[in-house]
Amino acid sequence: NAGVMQNPRHLVRRRGQEARLRCSPMKGHSHVYWYRQLPEEGLKFMVYLQKENIIDESGMPKERFSAEFPKEGPSILRIQQVVRGDSAAYFCASSPRWETYEQYFGPGTRLTVT
Amino acid sequence: AQSVTQLGSHVSVSEGALVLLRCNYSSSVPPYLFWYVQYPNQGLQLLLKYTTGATLVKGINGFEAEFKKSETSFHLTKPSAHMSDAAEYFCAVSSSGTGGFKTIFGAGTRLFVKA
Q1: Nearest to A51 by CA among A63, A34, A67, A68
Q2: Residue pLDDT, tens place only, A61-104
Q3: Looking at beta carbons, which residues of chain A come within 8 Å of B52?
Q4: Phi and psi torsions of A107, nearest 5°
């Protein structure tokens, strides 16, 4: 059973460009979480999605950031008009259902904004 | 509101020595507590978790943690450190709400193991 997959692993964008980060959950998992990790800090919750629904986006910046988890295909975290402060590691985690507290993490996407 | 405090951003031990990583939490509802390990350039791997029942929880790689409600603590220990234990460790707390659950992570403790 393949684990959570994220791509790309490393992404470099110039200021003002768009960044698209993809997350494929484990097989059978329909719940996806996105976290951001800044250098020397812990993970900060961004958004929680189920298939075709955003359940909790309380950790998402109000502007430039959006997330989706379509019926088919991976979950996408989209950052428009990136700025240097967006440079971070973005982790995706999945779980099979909401009432289980275990999350399985992907290897992360390291975004560098130049 | 929930929060997690990890005491000590860096801990250094000698190989074979006791590992003790401290974690205190606050939660208005019964918490679910976790320890994760992160190796360089990798995602987080679950070490152990406490949900209900026995307060001493054993995890992978010889680690264990004890839930102490009176002290609001969930410290991680390992009797004898190995070089391969060098990594970053995160304590986390979760609780459920109407919209599922949210996990709050501590800032992490980087463990160094000296030969």
Answers
A1: A68
A2: 999 999 999 999 999 999 999 999 999 999 999 988 766 677 88
A3: none
A4: -75, -10
- Residue type for position A68: E
**A88 in contact with B at a CB cutoff of 8 Å?**
no
Q: Work out the number of other CB atoms within 10 angstroms of the CB of residue B8.
A: 12
Handedness of CA A54, A56, A61, A63 (dihedral sign): positive
Nearest-CA distance A63 → chain B (Å):
22
- Pairing state of beta strands A5-7 and A10-13? unpaired
Which is it for the CA torsion A108, A110, B1, B2, positive or negative? Answer: positive
pLDDT digits (tens, 9 = 90+) for B51-74: 888 899 999 999 999 999 999 999
pLDDT, tens only, A28-38? 888 999 999 98
Q: Please give the DSSP secondary-structure letter assigned to residue B25.
A: E
